[in-house]
Amino acid sequence: MDSLMQMKTEATVLHAKFSERYDREPCVLRVTRNADVNQPDRHALLSTEKQANSVAFGATLSYQWNLSTSVPMRFTLPDAFGYLDEGDILRISPRSGDVWVMYRVNARTHSVFVTERCNSWCVMCSQPPKPRDSVNLADAWEQAIPFMDPLTPELGFTGGEPTLLGDRFIKLLTLARDCLPKAAIHVLSNGRLFAYLSFAEAVASVKHNDLIVGIPLYSDIGWRHDHVVQAPHSFDQTVRGILNLARVGVAVEIRVVLHRLTLERLLELAQFIARNFPFAAHVALMGYEPIGFGRTNLRSLWVDPVEYHEPLKRAVQWLVQQGIAVSIYNHQRCILPESLWPFAVKSISDWKNIYLPICEGCEARQDCGGFFHSAVDAHSAHIKPLQVHSLLS
Questions:
Q1: Which of 63, 135, 281, 286 has its CA 20 to 30 A from that of 393?
Q2: Handedness of CA 280, 175, 137, 146 (dihedral sign)
Q3: Higher pLDDT, 364 or 211
Q4: CATH number of the domain located at residue range(s) 108-392 in this protein
């Protein structure tokens, strides 16, 4: 129980409810501590005092209010939002009290979650699709992106399936290109709509100088991939989409989530990738996230990583021999053979990246990928702290 509580409290909270309610439309606001900021109506004043005097802001936030304070659109921040800082971006729904931290200026990674809809139904999906978006996410991001720090180094577009937004997706890419000139753009997509060459050309026409599309491929055999994705003909569409992106000059990363259905032919899949997509900029072999459908299908899909050392080593070795960059995501260093350590990277978004109590004192923690906050339901039985003598032996 102690480890469960620690895991939950270490994950960063991005969604909460304010106790206050107002009859106002939802708004996207940039957090500031500057009472003299330009366009205060587009900002949320983060007050460190017990009383805030300004009434011009879109919202005024405090962790504690003086009972005599009467500021319009004032909200009491939960303690879990103690990390809020200048430049963070919030979406506040005054009628329901819902607040969503869309962007954290000090975060290691930045994600643009553009839709809850998807045209696939993957058996291990960590974000199960919905028939419609609960809020107008595209509108929210069109307001938020211009507020982001122009020095933001990287931005990831994700969902759901981002390409389902069609022209709105292209508009968001263009907005990111214009407002965030330093940001590398990483799009997570199932790749199926890129089977239409015109759509691949539309993405290429944005002419972003650092854009890559990460696309999952789960088998070298069509019906096996389609089974994982739970969508007929998805293998053919995905393969055609990858080829179309390469045709128009958009970089492609290929992703493989490792579980019982994909591990069966992992080496053959690596060979298929090297043979058919030698242009791939990167291959990511990814650990299982036990949430969403990943939780529902946990018993039938999850495999302790210690049990798949050999197929993982063979797949990595094959891709390296073919000159394709490869990384291992979402794995703990202590349960990987040392020969794979150079390929294991810290890839879990920092807001859901946690460590177990047993990890305290581990000499490799700084370089370890850690756990998803949902990993209480599925983590290796072989987790152990690594000490200096074991690292050097």
A1: 286
A2: positive
A3: 211
A4: 3.20.20.70
